[in-house]
Amino acid sequence: MSKNYNIAVVPGDGIGNEIVPEGYRVLEAVAKKHNFSLSSKNFDWGAGYYLKNGEFLPKDGLETLKKFDAIYFGSVGLPAVDDTLPAKDYTFKVRANFSQYVNHRPVRTYPGVTRPLRSEKHIDFVIVRENVEGEFVQMGGQFLPDSADGMGIDTSVFTRKGIERVAHYAFKLARKRRNKVTHITKSNTLINSLSYWDRVITEVAEQYPDVAHDQMYIDNCTANFVLKPEIFDVVLTTNLFGDILSDLGGAIMGSLGLGGSGNINPEKEFPSMFEPIHGSAPDIAGNNIANPYGQIWSAAIMLEHLGEIEAANNIMDAIDKSTQQGVLTKDLGGNAGTKEVADAVIKNL
Ligand code: ATP
Ligand code: MG
User: Fold this and answer.
1) Where is the Isopropylmalate dehydrogenase-like domain (predicted)?
2) pTM for the whole thing?
3) Is the domain covering 1-104+271-349 a CATH 3.40.30.10 domain?
């Protein structure tokens, strides 16, 4: 009997409503070829939902999602909704409650895509971002904000457990790749939190003597992303640094629209969630011009997580063929629409 995967589909806002259905169409096509099936349910959660209901997802939303094998997600956010709402994050809630402590964000060159770097060297690395603690724990407050003595404080929290588990993921991933982990901190100035990070990572590294391990400061790392990105294999970093580095990673690929990602619970106690690295891009929504390659790549990362490796590789090969054939959206200098890209990928499967 062939396997069936039950997928929660959450397009979110803006271009999510255009690229998620296209990505899902690719998923259905690849499933047919590889002898497994998909069932799915759509959820209209996000900032648009918040404007109508006062919350980003319903009270029982997490319970509902928990029953699925995976979540295929677009992006949440609209200009009319305050970005700093502590409750905001649909994304934040799902990541934290489902212990999706790894954010897996690959960066690579696409054939036929012009990128901003002069170097023609092939780039292929994965940013492994700690996804639930660190700088994003939202602990702190604003004190007397309207007064001359006002202040704003955010605390970063790095726990041994949190550092160890993401480090193990990175080192195991490196074993499947080119056997190298570079960990990124700023422990020369954040001398408590990030030197603890350094210490714990170094301890974990000792358990993987076959994997090369080095360390780089975030400032130097951003320079190296631009000057010699080919030196990286697995880039292990904190929540905030990983957030910033992945936009830079998207940019050196040629567009933010190219990056796919997974919010992963490696133990599979909860469903993992797969989404492009960019936001909901309301500025270009509704015109069939959004680049869906990152969303489609996220589908491949999802299939890999579910154990459908051949199907995942099939999608990646089809993406490469499509960009090579010049099927490129406006952000890549082409004139293909969102739907045409998905059509091309499906044809190339
Ligand atoms: P978030 O806070 O959710 O990360 P953001 O404020 O960083 O969102 P994005 O929505 O990622 O912003 O958009 C940044 C820029 O990149 C916008 O100009 C947007 O149009 C462009 N962009 C993002 N995704 C795509 C895409 N898939 N195709 C084309 N352009 C995109
Ligand atoms: Mg962003």
Assistant:
1) 6-345
2) 0.94
3) no
